[in-house]
């Protein structure tokens, strides 16, 4: 009885696994190294805060299912870091914040139109918009003159209130909001329903297209503000500054226990997933592994987690969701067309 | 009564004509870009320039042929760009430093052995992709995104981020002559272009005339039906990812050979161009449909477009935007074709009965 209840608890609260991972890794690091002090812990908290803001947006997109994913966040982060600094130097902080929001909304809207409106697979659509944004950053990089980081943004990104990094508080607020959105609002329910079965959701009267489109906009807006804060934190912008966030956000989401095929997500899990991933990366930096190892380990972690998830779903006798099949009447022509 | 029948027949005929036009869209696009740049850019159609462009296009065309098979099965391979980089680094490392064994002895390979090892490595990475997707049930876009990072990390690790600057080889190690693949010419056409012609013909034969080729289409058209009719779906999938890895490592070898140096960032963002060429060539993203010939033409459209824009002096930002728009247009037209095809087929069935 209690065994069944415990396994039910684990099944419902998949974030427990990532929390366990965080605690175990923390324990090992504290025992094994004296250099892993409270100081580096606060560094971990800051890095994880930047990651979790992006990862929550990614999580919302992934929740919609059908293999939806946002690969354009790297481009959004880099471009908004450049733009926030450029515009802040010329026109002040309010205009800079407006332009950052504009980048996020515009990029998200383009993704939404491509994926929802034109039916292009998200992976290709967001990859394409990501490259366009990266090229825009390249152009911005050319007209980049010195540093014009806003002191207000810098205070939010790097400041502390009573020893607690401000960015961590910002991240916690975002987590709480997304958590409420998912669990307590009609939109959150509609989102889960869409991810579990888009057709059933549509028949139940949910405007599936709008639900999916909103997640792409949310993801881009979160990435845009994260980019502006990241630029303020490092005191400048550079090309490729957003690139690591593609795989890391994905890693944080899957490590946290959200399902990669959508329909079931946990904001709390994404927090612990981000912490775990950042701790792994920090450990590698402390140990001093050569460049490239970080990419290998992160790629391997994501694959390993999903491989384990895939195995358990095989065991439960569930079939992996497939992309929607074209109606059977097209089969004959498709065979003919291939000749 | 007869008037409506005649009207319907005329409607069907015009729709069939439109369908033919849509099927030939890649050809039309190719002629359009060639014509446009021939008018806009002086010396664009000079033989020397055309050969140079063919050399550029070849790289993307190799990747796109491998990608086409993967997409036909309903999957995707995002790791090709990283496999290009890893292959270039492995070939470069073997030629410059040899294989340093832990027992303090260095093995040197000649150029042919290096090439074969590199190709085997590409097939190996593809096999890892295939195993992850078939045995461990990881979604193709995640599995190959993971290997994208792992392979790129491994490429960085080979040299700790540095470039292998000189792949000329030395007489005492008997590994000279790596420049042949990228620099050699037969009848004034680069070897890499000949290699592409051979591979494209072989891949086309494979797709049209062998059981494996038909199985690839069947798996993409309806995986469950293919499995129930006794096809070894997992083997077919393994093959397409291994073939894609093989194509990617050819590209890595060609780039390293052209530059006679290898850099760990070689091949970054190549995957989008490869996907674009396949989609432009009529490969359906939902699987089950595509041709090798169409993909090669698609690669030429994209290659000519980007080379032409460079020659016209268009900024890199607008080049990316134009390329992105071309991809989007290709997908939209493909969806329109599929819908029209169904309607025309229904009409034919209605007329027959």
Spell out the blueprint of helices and strands.
The complex is a heterodimer of chains A (339) and B (353).
Chain A: H1 2-12, H2 15-32, H3 38-63, H4 73-91, H5 93-117, H6 122-142, H7 151-158, E1 160-161, E2 164-165, H8 166-184, H9 186-196, H10 198-203, H11 208-234, H12 244-255, H13 267-287, H14 293-315, H15 331-338
Antiparallel strand pairs in A: 1-2
Chain B: H1 2-23, H2 25-40, H3 47-72, H4 80-97, E1 99-101, E2 105-107, H5 111-134, H6 140-159, H7 179-183, E3 185-186, E4 189-190, H8 191-209, H9 211-221, H10 223-228, H11 233-259, H12 270-280, H13 292-312, H14 316-352
Antiparallel strand pairs in B: 1-2, 3-4
Structure, described:
The complex is a heterodimer of chains A (339) and B (353). Chain A has 339 residues and is mainly alpha-helical. Chain A has a domain of 218 residues. Helices cover 75% and strands 1% of the residues of chain A. A two-stranded antiparallel ribbon of chain A has the order 1-2. In chain A, a hairpin with a 2-residue loop joins strand 1 and strand 2. Chain A is globular, with a radius of gyration of 21 Å. The relative contact order of chain A is 0.17. The C terminus of chain A is likely disordered. The longest helix of chain B is centred in the last third of the chain and has 37 residues. Chain B starts with a helix and ends with a helix. Chain B has 14 helices and four strands. In chain B, the strands form two sheets. In chain B, strands 1-2 form a two-stranded antiparallel sheet. Chain B has a two-stranded antiparallel ribbon with strand order 3-4. Chain B has one domain: ABC transporter involved in vitamin B12 uptake, BtuC, CATH 1.10.3470. Chain B is mainly α. The chains are: A mainly alpha (339), B mainly alpha (353). Chains A and B meet through helix 6, helix 12, helix 14 and helix 15 of A and helix 6, helix 12 and helix 14 of B.
